[in-house]
């Protein structure tokens, strides 16, 4: 194994990440990194909900630099940039600003975030006191839509690498009506909860995929159409083939 591929990171679980967000995000910008489907977005929204903060999201793949810095207008003989309302609400109350898929932003958008991430400022306008700034995204090795994150951006955020904790997920699954057969399968085969991203575009097992499969099975059962063959087809369409075969029976 090469030195590059052998790089290891200190990791935290989702519940630890949520605790850190609640403690730090009002002063330090936090970036959660993990494979797809782990639950980064959900944990940010849960943390904001528990803190009674509205959560406003920007999706990195769908924004332009002016969506961050705002557009200029002429005031007297000067141009003044008007920040977008989602980033600077008129009532000046604190909120959670969630920058989803930040590593997918173009370099120009990354640059537009510099003062926001470090100084909590959009041009001459500060964010409301107590506002959280939390970002999330995938890693280059996840074969997702990820660009190179500039060193200047990395130096402006606290990076938390997220790991999956099976016991945490099972507790979450039971509280969120995930099917008993799905939970039992993961309890007996922990490694099936999260599989590596495949080289080819194909379904693969993640916590999100298992929760989605559970819901699909519930809907098919509610519709009176769930058969062993459909159970296997649904599993093959949502999780890794090895897990689908083991879950539904070959």
Strand order of the largest sheet: 1-10-2-9-6-3
Unreliable parts: 1-6
Class based on secondary structure composition and strand pairing: alpha/beta
- Mean of all residue-level pLDDT scores: 85
What percent of the residues sit in helical stretches (DSSP H or I)? Answer: 25-40%
Strand content: 15-25%
Shape: elongated
> Span between N and C termini?
34 Å
> Count of DSSP E strands?
10
User: If you compute it from the alpha carbons, what radius of gyration comes out, rounded to the nearest whole angstrom?
Assistant: 21 Å
Tell me the series of helices and strands, N- to C-terminal: EHEHEHEEEHEEEHEHHHHH
Number of helices: 10
Describe the structure.
It is a single chain. With 250 residues, the protein is of the alpha/beta class. It is 38% helix and 16% strand. It has 10 helices and 10 strands. Strands 1-10-2-9-6-3 form a 6-stranded parallel β-sheet. Strand 4 and strand 5 (78-82) form a beta hairpin. It is elongated and about 70 Å long. The model is unreliable at 1-6 (pLDDT under 50).
Please give a quick description of this structure.
This protein has 250 residues and is of the alpha/beta class. It has helices at 14-24, 40-50, 65-69, 107-119, 151-154, 166-175, 180-188, 207-222, 228-236, 241-248; strands spanning 11-12, 30-33, 55-59, 71-75, 78-82, 96-100, 121-122, 125-126, 132-137, 158-162.
């Amino acid at each position: 194994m090469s030195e590059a591929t052998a790089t290891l990171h200190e990791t935290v679980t989702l519940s630890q990440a949520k605790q850190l967000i609640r403690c730090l995000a009002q002063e330090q910008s936090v970036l959660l990194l993990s494979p797809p489907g782990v639950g980064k977005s959900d944990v940010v929204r849960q943390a904001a909900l528990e803190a009674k903060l509205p959560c406003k999201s920007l999706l990195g793949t769908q924004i332009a630099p002016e969506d961050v810095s705002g557009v200029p207008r002429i005031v007297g003989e000067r141009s003044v940039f008007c920040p977008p309302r989602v980033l600077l609400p008129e009532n000046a109350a604190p909120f959670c600003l969630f920058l989803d898929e930040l590593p997918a932003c173009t370099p120009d958008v990354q640059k537009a975030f510099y003062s926001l991430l470090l100084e909590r400022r959009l041009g001459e306008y500060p964010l409301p006191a107590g506002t959280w700034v939390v970002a999330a995204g995938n890693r280059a090795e996840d074969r997702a839509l990820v660009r190179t994150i500039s060193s200047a951006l990395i130096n402006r955020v606290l990076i938390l690498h997220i790991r999956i904790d099976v016991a945490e997920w099972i507790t979450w699954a039971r509280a969120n009506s995930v099917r008993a057969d799905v939970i039992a399968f993961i309890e007996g085969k922990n490694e099936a909860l999260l599989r590596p991203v495949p080289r080819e575009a194909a379904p693969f097992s993640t916590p999100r995929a298992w929760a989605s499969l559970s819901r699909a099975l519930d809907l098919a059962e509610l519709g009176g159409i769930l058969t062993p063959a459909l159970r296997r087809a649904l599993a093959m369409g949502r999780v890794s083939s090895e897990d689908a075969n083991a879950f539904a029976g070959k």
